[in-house]
TrEMBL record:
Recorded coiled-coil stretches: none
Subcellular location: Cell membrane
Species lineage: Bacteria, Pseudomonadati, Bacteroidota, Flavobacteriia, Flavobacteriales
Identification of the protein by name: ABC transporter permease
One Pfam family linked to the record: FtsX
Amino acid sequence: MLIYFRVFGESFNFAINALRNNKLRTFLSLLGVTIGIFSIIAVLAAVDSLERNIKESLSGIDKNTMYLTKYSFGPTEVPTWRRDNFPQVTYEEFEYLQRNVGDIDAISYTIFGLNESVKYQGKTISGVPVVAATNDIAEIENVKIDNGRFFSEVESVTGAPVVVLGNTLAENLYGSSNPMGTVIRVFGRKLTVIGVLKKFGEGMGDSPDEKVFLPANFVRSFTNGGAEGIPAAIALRPVKGADPAAFEEVLTQKLRAKRGLKFEDPDDFFLNKISMFTELIDGIIAMLTLVGAVIGGFSIVVGGFGIANIMFVSVKERTNLIGIQKSLGAKRQFVLFQFLFEAIVLCLIGGAAGIFLVWIATLIASSLVGDSFEFVLSFGNIIFGGVIAIVIGLVSGIIPAFQASRLDPVEAIRTGM
């Protein structure tokens, strides 16, 4: 066993000396591998970062949450002309489902797509997303209160003129002052601030930090919230342990009955499930990963060919030396490991350089985009990059190494001379 360790050690030393003696060739070989490893690991890191940020954005929402609305959250086979004729869900339908569907943990009527100016004293912030909803929206979307409270069921039903501010919006309006009990204007109407949300951070879509939350019935008092009115949705979540398929069936039948649809009539609404959305995202992420791996794979193959080419040249240059080594008693394994280690060391150094560049790129990218998106280089991707480098070294170096180990000592010396 000791002799094999000695062979390994001497082969490794020969490989390192060969790389030192051919610095330009070594650099060019490293460059090819570095670019290849950088390409594939950078793509994988970007896709991982995207997946992580999306899932963190959705982490507060239960996957069983559903949204009844005239709009589809994903691809659909329903033709556009039919979708355009779907009615908006109404507050009356929300109340009907609330009374007649069992196993509901939380349900909320939500008016969306509203953007208004928010005014406080002499300060005005334009284009603020407004969430007009019933009180259960806080539980469904898992919003947390930092100061004050969310509006109650009574305030929701009566349409009380109260408002809850997103954290960033509150900072922009009030600075370090306490906003509780102050009066702001939204839709040109006065509302009393009763709460401020905890900092959420950036995610998919509009962040709650920039929004205002107020009772849906307050907005319905001066806008058309009916079937032909402003966009709305009914968000709901079944109780834990409920059969999702049975719950969806009951929910669909109740809404069809409320709308008077006949048996042969198709649904004129969409039941969008968060679980379907996450599955769609997983499919997109998997496709991006595959495409990125293929693109990076081509770079890796090019780098592998470069290593193989360099190794063949190295065998040709050192034919005389190989012949002398073998004539002095060097075994085939010694020569084989000598060239194989040279290829692997090249790829490992190139891979390490590529991974280091990806790490630098993630730091730069994260600093440029700020808190809105975090680029990460996972430990799994680092290990994957190292394994790929070793595999490329083995694959690209095995044939030249095997060819060198099979040389006849006399012919090798004669050829070298």
